[in-house]
Structures are given as C-alpha cells and as structure tokens.
Amino acid sequence: MRKKLLTAAAAAALLGLLPFCLTGCGAREGVTIGSKQFTENILLGEMYAQLIEARTDIPVTRKLNLGGVQVCMPAMEKAEIDMYFEYTGTAFNEILDHELFEGLTTEDIFLQCKAELDEKHDITMFDPLGLNNTFALAVKTSRAEELGLSKISDLAPVAELMRFGADHFFFTRAYDGYDGMVDRYGVYFAEVLRVDTALMYEAADKGELDVIVVYSTDSLLKKYDLTCLEDDLSLFPPYEGTLLCRNGTLEKYPELRTLLNALAGGIDDETMQQLNYEVDVMGRSVEEVAGEFLAANNYL
Amino acid sequence: MNWTGMLSAAAVHLEITFAGVLIGTAIGLPLAALLIRFPRLGRGVFLVIDAIQTVPTLAMLTFVMLAFGLNEVTVVVSIVLYTLFPITRNAYVGLTSADAGIIRAGRGLGMTPLQIFTGIRLPLAVPMILTGIRLAVVAALAIATTGVFIGAGGLGMLIWRGIQTRNTTMMLSGAVPVSLLAVFFEFSIGLLEKKLRRI
Q1: Which of A14, A104, B42, B95 sits in a 20 to 30 Å window from A269, CA-based?
Q2: Is A45 an interface residue toward B (CB < 8 Å)?
Q3: Residue A100, exposed/middle/buried by CB under 10 A (0-12, 13-18, 19+)?
C-alpha cells in the first residue's frame, strides 16, 4: 500500500514538472512587451503590441500587468521583456537614482534620461507621447474649500487632522514618494494608509480619506469631484510618457527604430484620461480600446 | 462571465500550486529526515527557513525571477521556498515525537536505525506530515495569485484586473475559485489526516 502511494506521488510530481520543462526550452522568438500593473500602462503596452503586429512580421508576446518598475527594469536587464512604457520622472528618480531636478526643464530631464539610459543600461528611450502622468495630491473639492487648500504647503498646518492614502508604490519611491513628501512639505498626517488606486477615489468621495495621491491621467478624476493641489515646492518631476526598448532588440529588428516613434506626440493628458475612462469606467476591454484608437488615428 | 477563461486560469493555478507543493515536499521531507540524523544542523537550517518566510512575496518573486524568468517556474520555485516552513517543521516534529518506549522496544527487537526510522518514526509521523502539506497547499494557493505580477498565469490576473477596473464580477471570478479550492483541500486533506491517525 505504501509503495503504491509513493510511486503515485512520484508520478504526480513528474507530471507536475512536465509542462514547465516544455515552456522553458527554446529561445524566444520576436519581441516581448511588458507593462506595469495599471490600466494606462497596460493600454499603452497593448497599443504598441498591436502596432508591431499590424506593421511588421515580428511575433509579439505580451507580459502585461507586471509589478511596477521593480519588476520591469530587472526584467529588461535580463531580456525577459524587450520594451515597456515608462515615465521620465520615474526613470530620473528611480532608475537613474537622481534626487534633485531643480533648474532642469522638462526637456533637459528627457534628454538626460535618454543619454544615461543608453549609456548605462543599453536602453533606448523613444520620444514622449505628450502625456505627463504626474503624481498629485487630491482633496475632495468641498473639503478643500472648507479648509482653504489650493497648494500642498497649505496642508502642513492641518495635516494632523487628516487621513492620507496612497498606493503601495508611492511608499517605495526614494525621492518622489511618501518620504520625499514628508521631507519637503513637513506634512504629518493623523493616519497614513496604503490603499489601492481604484479604491482610493471612493474612499475620498465618502470622506473616509481626506488627502489621496492620484495620477494626473486617472480616469476617475473625471468622475469624482476632486481638486488637485498645486505642487508649489516642486516635489514631483515631470513624468512624460515614453517607451523604453532594449538596444539589443533594436539591433535585431531595425525596423522598430522608426516604428516605435510612431505614437510620439500623439497622446496628451486629456486623450489618455479618456482612454483610461473607457476601460476603467465604461468597462470596455483593453484590446478593443487600444485597437480602436490606433485605427481611428491611422496608425495601422 | 468568461467561463473558459476562468477554467483555464484555474487549471494553471492548480498546476503551479501542486508543482510547488510536490517539489517542496520532495525537498522538505528528506531535509527533515536529515535533521533527525544530524541534529546539530537543525538550528542553522531552521534559521534559514524562518528567514525565507519573512521575505515579502513580491520581493521574493522579483528575486527568483532574475534566475528563472517571467513565467510560472518562478512562482513554483517561490512556493517551494515558502512551503519549506510548514513541511519541514511539521515533518521534523512528527518524526521526533515518536514515543520513546516504542523506539526502545524496536531497538530491543534488534531493529537497525534505518528500520526504526522507516518502521516506527515515519508511519507515526504521517498525520503531522499531512498537516504540514495541508498548510502548504493553502498557502501555495494564495501565493500563486501574486504570480500575475511577474507575468505568470493563474487566477491572480482575474483578481487584480478586477480590482483595478473595479469590475467586481471579474474579481470574484478569480477570488471565489481560490477560496473554494483552499476550503476543499483544507477539508479533504484534513479528512485524510484523521483516517490515518487510527494506526
């Protein structure tokens, strides 16, 4: 009886391993597109995937919904993905590890990122799409009016009465996240909570949170009546949206050098918000919205 | 309600869970046996196993991903690492808790150390080992949902996309199967434990 059980267990173990041996073998063909784990990034990842599929013969694998820059960058370095959509501010602070951007214009930051990414990481940063997806501290409009808040520094005296919420990633960033905010603005909130972006808006609307960290191209900004406070002490750098792609991939498929710039200047904040809205609020699929946008603007 | 999508995701999820737990058992049980033979290694080994337990799941996945890539294998390896804790500890306790009187009787009958291990310690440890496996399966089912963040399949994608787009139906279509599976295995392995306790 025991022998039968042991052989059964061994057989099950081997069967369990089999599928993985099969997927692990063989070099990967074509390009793999990654994305971070929020709608905008997934949408843009899908757009580039459809763009490449429509305009070239290159096979495309999608690895969307990865866990932030902490997963995407190591994956790029390991060539597990060939490209993903990033933001200049994040590249500047998180990837290239520069703390201060005083005196640098938006264009300066883009050019510096582009040069350093090429030199230090062997990655090409393509031209910005036009959108600037920056962090913003938002307060329900009625509360903002009640307390006379229009700039983030207005929060310092009243912070101890307020509850603050931000997503997990805001707390992991060294300079342009929670630590930087407390340093720069001296805001000490009564309660500090980690909340998922999707749930934050409802919480702020219901008064369960007073101050939340939002992204300027969030679809839900259209839906809820929130006021974004002015970043008067320049905590947040610009976050122009651009595609990052490994140089190795561009050498292998030179046609991508021009193709991946196709969307440059083509999507501004308003447009991005609208696209996000169609997925998040109207519940349409990412594939549909991406495809529709590309077709309507003659990218295919 | 995309039933085929959900079922194929559930299949991948189960595959990942069981591959992880089976490999974890294949490593954890011999490891526990080894610690019976060489007790002085115990402190060091358990220190490492306990330390692994404290690493946050996403950090572990990212770290393992550097070696195994953005796929299910990374999740399986991570599950193996996390399940060492319930499996090895439980097996160790089970194997060491055989009644001293029975062992003395065995020695009196002329049993060799190996025979004592396979004839006395191991059969008496089976319920404890099964408890460890049961805990491992339930933990593995949960860990497998975070695989989505490193590009693996499974029910995690449904859960996270459902949360992000505030699509409760999608979120539940991922979360409910995971919960049902956890309850099912908790119950059935528990039943097996009870049956085998009557030695």
Answers
A1: A104
A2: no
A3: exposed
Local mean pLDDT, 10-residue blocks, chain A (300 residues): 59 56 57 93 95 94 90 94 95 89 89 95 96 92 89 92 92 88 92 87 90 90 83 89 96 94 92 92 91 92
Residue of B27, B157, B166, B169 for testing the chain A interface, max A β-carbons within 10 Å: B166
Tell me the shortest Cα–Cα distance from B18 to chain A, in angstroms: 7
Superfamily for domain range A135-228? Osmoprotection protein (prox); domain 2 (3.40.190.120)
Q: Given this structure, which CATH class describes domain A32-132+238-296?
A: alpha beta
Order the strands of the A31-34 sheet from edge to edge.
A60-63, A31-34, A83-87, A241-246, A123-125
Strand partners, A227: A139
Burial class (CB in 10 A: 0-12, 13-18, 19+), A30: middle
Q: What is the pLDDT of residues B18-70, one digit of tens each?
A: 999 999 999 999 999 999 889 899 999 999 999 999 999 999 999 999 999 89
Question: Contact B164/A38, CB-based, under 8 Å?
Answer: yes
Judge: B163–A198 Cβ closer than 8 Å, yes or no.
Answer: yes
A181: number of Cβ within 10 Å: 25
Q: Is A172 on the interface with B (CB under 8 A)?
A: no
- State whether residue B52 sits within 8 Å of chain A by CB: no
User: Are A9 and B18 in contact (CB < 8 Å)?
Assistant: no
Shortest distance between the Cα of B67 and any Cα of chain A, in A, equals 9
Min Cα–Cα distance to chain A from B40, Å: 29
**φ/ψ bin of A34: left (φ > 0), alpha (ψ from -120 to 50), beta (otherwise):** beta
Binned at pLDDT 50, 70 and 90, residue B198 comes out as low
Domain ranges of chain A: 32-132+238-296, 135-228
Residues 6+ apart with CB under 8 A from B63: B55
Homologous superfamily of B3-194: MetI-like (1.10.3720.10)
Inform me whether the C-beta atom of residue A19 falls under 8 Å from chain B C-beta atoms.
yes
- Interchain contact B119–A (C-beta under 8 A): no
Helix B168-197 / helix B156-164 crossing angle, nearest 10 deg: 140
Name, in order, each residue with C-beta under 8 angstroms of B83's C-beta and a sequence gap of 6 or more.
B20, B21, B24, B25, B28, B136, B139, B140
Q: ipTM surpassing 0.85, yes or no?
A: no
The answer to whether the predicted template modeling score (pTM) of the entire model surpasses 0.80 is: yes
